[in-house]
Amino acid sequence: MPDKQQASFQTAVHDDFKRVNECIHEQLHSDVALVSKIGEYIIKSGGKRLRPLLVLLTARACGYNDYNHIPLAAIIEFLHTASLLHDDVVDQSDLRRGKDTANALWGNAPSVLVGDFLYSRAFQLMVGLENFKLLHILADATNIIAEGEVMQLMNIHDADVTEDDYMEVIRCKTAMLFQASSHTAAILSKANPELESDMANYGNYLGIAFQLVDDLLDYDGDAEAMGKNLGDDLAEGKPTLPLIYTLKHGTGDQKTLIREAIEQGGRDNIEAVVEAVRSCGALQYTAAKAQEYSAKAKRCLNLLPEGEFRSAMADLADFAVARSF
Q1: Which residue has the higher pLDDT, 229 or 237?
Q2: CA–CA separation, 122 vs 189, rounded Å?
Q3: Are 24 and 320 contacting, i.e. CB atoms less than 8 angstroms apart?
Q4: What Gene Ontology terms describe what this protein does at the molecular function level (predicted)?
Q5: Does the reported pTM lie above 0.90?
Q6: How far apart are CA 179 and CA 64, in angstroms?
Q7: CA angle, 195 as apex, 149 and 134 as ends, to 5°?
């Protein structure tokens, strides 16, 4: 089912997505060879490209038939890619999607600086759209995402982080760019205020569901399919929802185990931690929470006209929670 759903939302905007890729490669050009080299490497390193796809699907679902959704989708991908370059430096990651990270290959300084280049190139493209409302939303979103990253950094090794704290971090860190993707596409399409609001909410709910499943897969996924090791978040001392739930509902021994694991980081007790989150119902709780947000996202589609693009957006919400990678 996930493969069929993925094909649905990719096929619906196949031609548009080819144009987005062309725009991305064109805009990655720099007279500084290392900028182009690292930029091309990270862009080509895989990934589901859900955020630019969301721009294209929302624009088409809202009846947009011009060209500017193409550079808008490229803007979103540049913002996302820049954040990945910076994240990998902050997290000291060596692997992403099964490949060496840019910082592992070229070092931290070039990775941070090329991330800065991608941010600035995104804002150059934004200015080219000549739409102040779009610029305002994307500037705000970029700022909130940065705040979310700092909030997550502050929570590392803190076993007292609450579920509300966690949900606020993922709303800022992950869901905000999904929200900006669908919201700006609706604005570009000159959607009425009610539909514009629904499209912004769709992206927010979709992004939350997506991150919840990411955190679930960290303890119940296929390491090879994901291109990273199980327990990566635990190794970094990140208190995600499966751990937070176990700290609240687990046995005394399980609570002690999880608290020590968060506070110390590393993978020394990864097998025991995985067993604890599985046996106390944390994974089922996280999955149910993701399904709840996926359902909220699909209810936001009711004002869209029936058709291929609305169906693809519903499939995208289903895929976000049914995926295994």
Answers
A1: 237
A2: 20
A3: no
A4: all-trans-octaprenyl-diphosphate synthase activity; metal ion binding
A5: yes
A6: 18
A7: 50
Residue 20 has pLDDT above 60, yes or no: yes
Nearest in space to 77 (alpha carbons), one of 37, 118, 129, 36: 118
Q: Which of 173, 308, 324, 298 is nearest to 238 (CA)?
A: 173
Per-residue pLDDT of 140-177, as tens digits, reads 999 999 999 999 999 999 999 999 999 999 999 999 99
- Residue found under tokens 């997290």: 91
pLDDT in tens, 78-131: 999 999 898 888 877 777 766 888 888 898 898 999 899 999 999 999 999 999
Residue ranges and CATH numbers for the domains of the chain are 2-322 (1.10.600.10)
Closest CA to 220 of 171, 306, 282, 167: 282
Helix, strand and coil content of the chain, in percent to the nearest 5, comes to: 75, 0, 20
pLDDT for residue 287: 96
Cβ contacts of 158 within 8 Å, gap of 6 or more: 239, 262
Report the distance separating Cα 129 and Cα 136, nearest Å: 12
Integer-rounded Cα Rg, in Å, for the chain is: 19
- Supply 96's token pair: 């992403």
Tokens representing residue 271 in the block:
């097998």
DSSP readout, 194-207? HHHHHHHHHHHHHH
Would you say 242 and 205 are in contact if contact means Cβ atoms under 8 Å apart? Answer: no
Amino acid at residue number 61: A
